[in-house]
Amino acid sequence: MNRKTLKSDGFVGFRPFDSLEIIRVPQGPGLFAVLRPNEFEPHFLKRSTAGVFKKKIPTLPADAIWTEWVDGADILYIGKAGPGSKGNRGLRIQIKEFLDFGRGLPPGHWDSRLIWQLTHADELILAWKELPAEEVSQAEAAYHAAFVADHGKLPFANLVQAKSKN
Fold first, then answer.
1. Which has the closest alpha carbon to 114: 158, 56, 54, 57?
2. Is 91 within 8 Å of 81 (Cβ atoms)?
3. How deeply is 125 buried, as exposed, middle or buried, from its count of CB atoms within 10 A (0-12, 13-18, 19+)?
4. Cα–Cα distance for residue pair 116/122, rounded to 1 Å
5. pTM of the complete model
6. CB within 8 A of 14, min separation 6: which ones?
7. Burial class of residue 4 in the structure, from the number of CB atoms within 10 Å of its CB (0-12 exposed, 13-18 middle, 19+ buried)
8. SS3 at position 2
């Protein structure tokens, strides 16, 4: 599972964080992925740029972060964006909140926090794929499972494996 897999599966965008125009991200539900650019080497900040979540600081010690790193993988995180209870959420809002989390604002979730302890996180790449709302959770679980099958563990910043809902 890699960048090529995502492209062949219909992921689009593939924009660096620092040049992403959020207005170009679709508003519907779907999945999004964070990828490292070619030649990106992991280096970690002593203190995360991410916002505080329920009075918890997102920074981890370097040895704890290194245990999550997946050598050879270009996918660092796979997340979902559902429609929300009122149907007004989706990829654009979820990705905006994800990026705002890295800028120090409080997050709506905690799972992606390791992204924000990487140096040069602004060079990381975002891709997304719109899906019908009823397929989002199942698709996220399938991508997590495929990544684990290929790499033996979840993507770097996915700390919880999504479960299939039958």
1. 158
2. yes
3. buried
4. 9
5. 0.93
6. 3, 7, 35, 125, 126, 127
7. exposed
8. coil
CB within 8 Å of 104: residues ≥ 6 apart: 49, 50, 51
CB 154 within 8 A of CB 161: yes
At 62, which amino acid appears? A
Q: What is the pLDDT of residues 101-141, one digit of tens each?
A: 999 887 766 778 999 999 999 999 999 999 999 999 999 99
What percent of the chain has a predicted confidence (pLDDT) above 90? 74
**Number of C-beta neighbours around residue 109 at 10 A:** 13
Q: To which residue do tokens 């599972």 refer?
A: 1
Structure tokens at 2: 């890699």
